[in-house]
Amino acid sequence: RCIWGRTTQMPHNKFHQETFDFPVKSLLGREDFFVAPSNMSAVRLIENVSPAFPALLIFGGSGSGKTHLAHLFCDVVFEKFSEKAFFMETLSLSSVETALRTSRFIVLEDVKAPVEEEALFHLMNGVKNQSGVLLMTSLTNYPSWGIKLADLLSRLSAVQSAQLGFPDDSLMTAVWVKLFAERGVGISPEAVSYLLKNTERSFVFARRLAQAADKKALSEKRAVTVPLLKDVLKEIGTSDPSEKRE
Questions:
Q1: In the chain, how long is the greatest CA-to-CA distance?
Q2: What residues pair up with 4 in beta bridges, in sequence order?
């Protein structure tokens, strides 16, 4: 229900199984998104999408669920308006023209400085003129984008926005289960409890750890248990300090 646009060896031996980094399918349906206090306001923005509010902004740390919410936006648009939303992959005047010809419901992900200000201004005006809705996602709120164009700043100041906050235990539990489920791996409550107590609340680090644990479990033919997770944490260490800003 989304339209995508582009304008832009480990040795063998009897004790070791070689692993391959196959693409992992991300689960992006409604049933895979866990609603918690940290994301409730963003979920409400998506569920109540209406041309009465032609621009929405969801911002939060990497891996915090922005792309998942963008796909839920597509679902809600299709259910309410029987139309498909258009995902923009780049922001330029030409890509804006393409997007506006394709749909009045548009997703623009990962907005950050420097912003093509004239293109964004044209996009926001075009969506509003077509009685559509623009959903933007970003790591940060718009004041950090370095916008200089006064008219664009005025438009952005009227945008309905929601921040994805710091995840609590319930949300991180759902994240751990989802990350391993995407890899077809089950994880015990004991293992999840260990992760909650011994890892920081970083979605980027959670994805990195799940990948490493899955690879180790496959290569050593072990289940994802607390002992395996302890080994993985020793191997990969803690997350990058920059990730703590999430």
A1: 67
A2: 87
Question: Peptide bond before 114: cis, by omega within 30 degrees of 0?
Answer: yes
Chain segment 23-69, per-residue pLDDT in tens: 333 434 554 566 777 788 999 999 999 999 999 999 998 767 788 89
Beta-strand pair 2-4/160-163? unpaired
- Cα–Cα dist 208/179, whole Å: 10
Residue 12, pLDDT > 60, answer no
Collapsing DSSP states into helix, strand and coil, what is residue 16? strand
DSSP state of 107: E
User: For the chain, how big is the Rg over CA atoms in Å?
Assistant: 20
- Inter-residue contact 224 to 213 (CB < 8 Å): yes
Does this model's pTM top 0.90? My answer is no
List residues bridging with 16 in a β-sheet. 13
Angle at 127 between CA 122 and CA 129, to 5 degrees: 95
Residues 196, 241: Cα–Cα separation, whole Å = 19
